[in-house]
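Why this split exists: single-chain examples teach little about how molecules sit against one another. For that reason, every record in the complexes split bundles all components of an assembly together and asks for one structure covering all of them. Below is a record exactly as it appears in the raw files.
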Amino acid sequence: MANDVQLSADGKLQHLLHIEGLDKTLLTQILDTAESFFNHADGSIVKKPVLRGRTVANLFFEDSTRTRSTFELAAKKLDADVLHFDVKGSALSKGESLKDTLQTLQAMHIDMFVIRHKENEIPIYCAELVGPRTAILNAGDGNRAHPTQALLDAFSIRKHKGGFEDLTVTIVGDIRFSRVARSQIAVLKTLGVKTLRVAGPDSLLPEDVSAMGVEVHRNLDDAVSDADVVIMLRVQKERMDSDLIPTTDAYFAEWGLTPERLKLAKADAIVMHPGPMNRGIEIASEVADGPQSIILDQVTNGIAVRMAVMSLIMSGRH
Amino acid sequence: MANDVQLSADGKLQHLLHIEGLDKTLLTQILDTAESFFNHADGSIVKKPVLRGRTVANLFFEDSTRTRSTFELAAKKLDADVLHFDVKGSALSKGESLKDTLQTLQAMHIDMFVIRHKENEIPIYCAELVGPRTAILNAGDGNRAHPTQALLDAFSIRKHKGGFEDLTVTIVGDIRFSRVARSQIAVLKTLGVKTLRVAGPDSLLPEDVSAMGVEVHRNLDDAVSDADVVIMLRVQKERMDSDLIPTTDAYFAEWGLTPERLKLAKADAIVMHPGPMNRGIEIASEVADGPQSIILDQVTNGIAVRMAVMSLIMSGRH
Amino acid sequence: MANDVQLSADGKLQHLLHIEGLDKTLLTQILDTAESFFNHADGSIVKKPVLRGRTVANLFFEDSTRTRSTFELAAKKLDADVLHFDVKGSALSKGESLKDTLQTLQAMHIDMFVIRHKENEIPIYCAELVGPRTAILNAGDGNRAHPTQALLDAFSIRKHKGGFEDLTVTIVGDIRFSRVARSQIAVLKTLGVKTLRVAGPDSLLPEDVSAMGVEVHRNLDDAVSDADVVIMLRVQKERMDSDLIPTTDAYFAEWGLTPERLKLAKADAIVMHPGPMNRGIEIASEVADGPQSIILDQVTNGIAVRMAVMSLIMSGRH
């Protein structure tokens, strides 16, 4: 199984491809390491030169300024050199295969690749190809996995709620096509969330949703009731342009998180979103900017979590 | 007024949005600080790690290799980490608002944004949004302001002329649509230039030119006569494609700085241009490359001036 | 001659524009310096901060992710600051001449330009323009020269074969339009390769091939027989789209390096390729990935050789 590729024989993290196969101890170690990068006096993130002399390369086959920037910032806070590959202008467009490109970059003694690709399992393929000498970090592949997003979400929940065991967490929206939702479910189940709910229109629930081991809701009011954490997912443009969603107004009426609906959750519930948000489609601005929103704090935590993954992988290689 | 946003309660520089509102003492402090970054033995710019651990992000909504590069070099000479945002590929093109983008980047603990935008006052909006915790540097907005260009021009004049009080400075060309001209006029008036002249065809003078507190000339020979400093502005391509300018040949005949016309200025007059130049349109090559031109020195000075602004803003935040 | 521009009065390297004019002593010094950057314990490349405080600017008028990245990595391993100029978005597209752009960048106190251009001799023009104060490194111009590629090839041959004097080296493919072939021939002749062969279809041999001082073969079996080194060149897309090549299948049948043909070479012959490869056109995958291929090692060596050139040029300036 793919687990083998992510972990060394003695259980050390070698690549980060998906949450599946990582146990509670390892996930907790990642969150604790992320915690250690914060200066608790002022909430800032500390610079630690543990990747000094190392090179991290970004290979983004899909645009993502936000994810690319937080990986870059994380690498620089660890004092790594960072290379960007504009994959559109690269040898791939001259007909060189992904395999040749990766092996060529590996021959440049790059230590870590951060890869985003629109096709599922490309990062697994890459990890199998490069072997343990070079690390692969999945920054999102197809609709399959986005492990650092899920880890930063778990970190954010623990930071604001103290743990996972007593929580009801609700994930709302496009569960079907969302790599974020898939990775969130995996991480939160492993970390022991008591009640994990997903909610969305039938058209955006996966066919195998009943096998996911989560409560399925087809009504937002029910899904949000007494929740400790409400995670709203982005409605992708492709979904709006398809028949899967009626109109954005109708979507907001049925599935948008409004201040009224949020009142159904616990009084101290927190609201999360992976960004970028569609205000007025999946979330009302009053909620996005309101006191229960920790959406901007998620961004900050994303840097520390990515630093944690990078430093753990690199320390595991010695 | 916008002054409030740029300055802290005790008068320290927090953002640089425009020249208006900055007094002679503060402008002189910026020029003196820029001076301190030069190694006077060989004219080189010294590396000073005063922004070590800080992150500067470039947000250029308009192309400008020259301005972007000098800001990047300035930041690196101060040992900051520099992030580039290709704003075209960013979340803004996914419908995320500028507000969400800025707040997201701020949540990444970026210390300073360098912003260029084709619309007026966007940097003011950004400064009001991010507050004093994050600094905004205006790298040019619409036809309103380009404060670092004006500061480097002032620095260059002081370096070559020793001061401002006795000078006649002439600015020639597209005064109407030029953010550079507007900021130059503001900085040179505050620094006490004795005679400040603007000159250009009627179509390129602003309607309120008589209220600008400068001498207005509609003839280049008159405008240049006995000047100590002649600043030629770039004729933008948009202007050439419009009816505002007859032909480039006709423009050069009437408004181009030729060796003959330059003889009307003082014998030791200097010639400046913000670049990139249109040789043979606003300036003759013999003048651009001649002994009175300090055009390339302006580029060098631009790095020191941007270092000065960045380091003053950062020191004002502690 | 152009030699003068590359070398200072006392024979130090000031620019790297082409191999012609560099003698065996200097070429050997470059290879020895590259050697010194390797950690022989693990084959890694050592970080040496000899360009700390220096700025290297990439000016790529043609795309080349591979070459650009190795230059960038080389510069960062020497602790230089690296600037990228997206030349398409730059002042050049606003009508500023190459001369003004270079002089402007030089005024930013950039120490070294790495230039790739589709026109021949542009790097020579640039070196003459900027003078000895700023170094020009040719990263490939037109079909004329690609000196760092040729140097890394020579380095790779010496590393695997111990020297040059007893070798038979065969270069196969598009000799006519290849800057790589031209520079390889120059470097290998100067370093004393005993037998240097070129081979390719008549349509891809230069008209003056008989004057190049190499053995010319019009049959791949003959060309490869008893060779110590076989260098396969890339068939450019432009060539495939022209009449110069019949079909890629026909090309492979006649000029592709297959395992069978490689058996005609010496038993310990090595196979090289500058990349990116067209598998199944100029080279069979079994050969590219086989035990005699050193194609990925060439990539690694390219970083050390570029570090060597950069550090020698910079040390020559003091």
